[in-house]
């Protein structure tokens, strides 16, 4: 066979080997040699002077970057020198480019390839991770929620050591609660429920909601000033958590960022909540939407997108149950309805799952083993926390029958329909305008239930224009109407089919005397409806902007999407007073307990509880949702103090000292006791600052 015939016969094979170098072992060996463009190796150019990889439209590796599948570092045996030489001889006799020119061509084509990723050191990787964290949506949402809380609760943090929001009665009580829980858990946890107030009553820490979940904060600092500062900080943080929790829930359900922000702000700063500024246990509601968001995320469920099994995550389910248990530990006032809601969700979910299983629809398995375990463990934790917290309250109900509520108590606090459209006096926008409407309410502090006219309007629009499905909108509307009916207590057809059955048959429900606080759930549902409407509006704005070239009036329309959020914020502005807390009398820093401070009443005793945080000495004084019979008897018998009957009775109780505060006697039944003689009573009298101390 002649040389020309041999070249003609072998040239197609060589070209094929170069073009399919990755197809097989032999081809790979030949292709690797061609791909690297090594001098002296053939097969790198086809009959058209094109590189084999170039014919396919892809970049060619350079000399420094061996092609994938080459013999170097892959464990594949490279072609021998003899085979390479033979291939070079066969494929390079006709149309072969000089080695230098082939190298230059490969280098030119490598310019079109992707640049290699830079190898970052550990410090740069850490900085990049921190940067990603700082600009993450949830970081920005948390910072925004905190900034809004500082601004919209101002001037709470202006003088945080000396003032309290709304008044210094209930906030003083709750400042003491935070301090007591932290103090006793550090010193003697077994005595948690036997507080230093209401001496000698037992289980006195359970006379009202305890805010026990804030106990870690109570471990920092001592004394009244630290207690006031701690309360103010938690007051601001409670608003921030409520905003963030409702935002997270709306986002998990499928709302956009601006829509979720409307839901968060509307939930945390609804005008009716301004009347609750002195009730931290009501404002501490952010754990409710946050726990629901975590549980929905863990179960892969969204209102907008439905159930997505691949998005299940047992870790989020655990976190949701833990947050729910923590929310319950803040108090049963709003925690008890939340507990029953979670129980209802569990029952409905199990019923739906069983129904699908029986009907043969098993394509979507609602539980994996890990998620089922998370629900079992988390649900058990939640139930255990609820049961342990309920024990002291059942003890109190057993020892103090007058602590239990009656339907007559519910009647007093049940608001009429007009309450849903009346704002409290603390509302900067509507407070003055609604003064006449408030005067018509029997007990306006618990009956001004306006969630915001803007929120009403957005929710109404969400019934017709929304990203939620029609059936979901109808379910949300039904939830709004049901919770409103419950909030009316016995005013809604006597409560026969709404509040009264819950009061009579659900354990613990008869301890809730203010049905208007069910408005919390109405506000949350209205926020979800509003979020659907705002999200749909924002989506329509993006569509309109995309349809125009140039994108006009895109920027202005996008700015208009912030208008609902701004209007909701404006309705949340407040004029909440921040009175100065009475200064602690010097006597309460030195006098030992058990002691009695006179004058004594529900409101007067609450600052006394705050003053006791210096030493936590036992005292008869205390304020709560009811007055124990023993405390009422002490107040009655000491109207003539110091006299023989009152002194003998106090000694019987174990009282060692009585502190009379001169500055608070005016206008009280104890106004003249300071002039009563102590002769023949076996007691001593001592002036300590503005107080008079009687030692029994």
TrEMBL record:
Chain spans, region Disordered: 1-105
Compositional bias (Basic and acidic residues): 1-12
Keywords annotated in UniProt: Membrane, Transmembrane, Transmembrane helix
Comp. bias (Gly residues): 18-46
Species this protein is from: Micromonospora coerulea
Chain segments annotated as transmembrane: 133-154, 229-250, 257-274, 280-296, 316-332, 338-355, 367-391, 449-468, 475-499, 519-539
Entry superkingdom: Bacteria
Keyword flag Membrane: yes
Protein name per its UniProtKB record: 4-amino-4-deoxy-L-arabinose transferase-like glycosyltransferase
């Amino acid at each position: 066979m002649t040389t020309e015939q041999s070249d003609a016969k072998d040239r197609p094979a060589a070209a094929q080997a170069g073009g399919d170098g990755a197809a097989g072992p032999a081809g790979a060996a030949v292709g690797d040699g061609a791909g690297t463009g090594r001098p002296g190796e053939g097969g790198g150019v086809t009959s058209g002077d094109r590189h084999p990889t170039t014919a396919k439209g892809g970049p060619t590796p350079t000399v420094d970057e061996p092609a994938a599948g080459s013999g170097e570092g892959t464990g594949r045996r490279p072609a021998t020198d003899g085979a390479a030489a033979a291939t070079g001889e066969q494929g390079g006799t006709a149309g072969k480019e000089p080695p230098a020119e082939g190298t230059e061509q490969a280098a030119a084509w490598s310019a079109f390839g992707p640049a290699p990723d830079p190898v970052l050191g550990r410090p740069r990787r850490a900085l990049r991770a921190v940067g990603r964290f700082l600009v993450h949506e949830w970081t920005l949402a948390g910072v925004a929620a905190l900034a809004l809380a500082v601004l919209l609760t101002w001037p709470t943090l202006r003088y945080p050591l000396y003032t309290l929001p709304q008044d210094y009665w209930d906030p003083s009580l709750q400042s003491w609660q935070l301090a007591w829980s932290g103090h006793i858990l550090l010193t003697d946890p077994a005595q948690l429920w036997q507080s230093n107030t209401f001496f000698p009553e037992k289980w006195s820490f359970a006379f009202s909601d305890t805010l026990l979940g804030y106990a870690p904060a109570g471990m920092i600092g001592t004394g009244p000033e630290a207690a006031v500062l701690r309360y103010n900080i938690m007051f601001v943080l409670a608003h921030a958590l409520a905003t963030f929790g409702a935002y997270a829930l709306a986002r998990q359900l499928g709302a956009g960022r601006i829509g979720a922000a409307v839901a968060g702000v509307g939930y945390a700063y609804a005008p009716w909540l301004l009347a609750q500024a002195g009730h931290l246990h009501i404002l501490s509601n952010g754990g409710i939407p946050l726990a629901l968001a975590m549980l929905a995320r863990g179960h892969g469920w969204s209102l907008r997108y439905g159930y997505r099994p691949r998005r299940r995550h047992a870790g989020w389910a655990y976190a949701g149950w833990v947050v729910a248990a923590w929310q319950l530990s803040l108090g049963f006032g709003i925690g008890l309805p939340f507990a029953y809601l979670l129980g209802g969700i569990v029952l409905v979910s199990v019923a739906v799952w069983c129904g699908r299983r029986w009907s043969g629809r098993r394509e979507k398995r609602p539980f994996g083993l890990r998620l089922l375990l998370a629900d079992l463990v988390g649900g058990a934790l939640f139930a255990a926390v609820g049961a342990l917290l309920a024990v002291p309250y059942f003890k109190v109900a057993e020892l103090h029958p007058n602590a239990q509520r009656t339907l007559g108590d519910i009647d007093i606090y049940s608001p009429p329909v007009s309450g849903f459209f009346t704002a409290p006096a603390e509302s900067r926008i509507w407070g003055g305008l609604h003064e006449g409407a408030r005067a018509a309410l029997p007990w306006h502090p618990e009956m001004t239930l306006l969630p915001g006219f803007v929120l009403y309007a957005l929710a109404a629009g969400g019934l017709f224009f929304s990203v939620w499905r029609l059936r979901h909108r109808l379910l949300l509307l039904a939830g709004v109407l049901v919770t409103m009916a419950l909030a009316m207590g016995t005013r809604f057809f006597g409560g026969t089919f709404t509040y009264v059955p819950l009061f009579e048959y659900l354990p613990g429900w008869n301890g809730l005397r203010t049905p208007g606080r069910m408005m919390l759930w109405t506000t949350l549902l209205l926020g979800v409806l509003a979020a659907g409407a705002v999200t749909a509006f924002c989506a329509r704005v993006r569509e309109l902007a995309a349809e125009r070239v140039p994108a006009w009036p895109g920027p202005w329309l996008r700015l208009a999407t912030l208008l609902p959020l701004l209007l909701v914020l404006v309705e949340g502005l407040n004029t909440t007073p921040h009175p100065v807390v009475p200064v602690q009398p010097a006597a309460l820093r030195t006098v030992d307990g058990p002691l009695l401070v006179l004058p004594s009443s529900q409101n007067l005793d609450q600052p006394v509880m705050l003053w006791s945080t210096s030493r936590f000495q036992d005292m008869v004084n205390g304020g709560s949702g009811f007055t124990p019979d023993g405390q009422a008897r002490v107040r009655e018998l000491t109207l003539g103090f110091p006299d023989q009957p009152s002194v003998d009775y106090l000694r019987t109780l174990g009282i060692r000292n009585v502190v009379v505060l001169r500055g608070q006697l005016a206008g009280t039944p104890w106004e003249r006791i300071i002039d009563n003689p102590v002769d023949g009573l076996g007691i001593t009298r001592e002036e300590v600052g503005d107080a008079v101390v009687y030692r029994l």
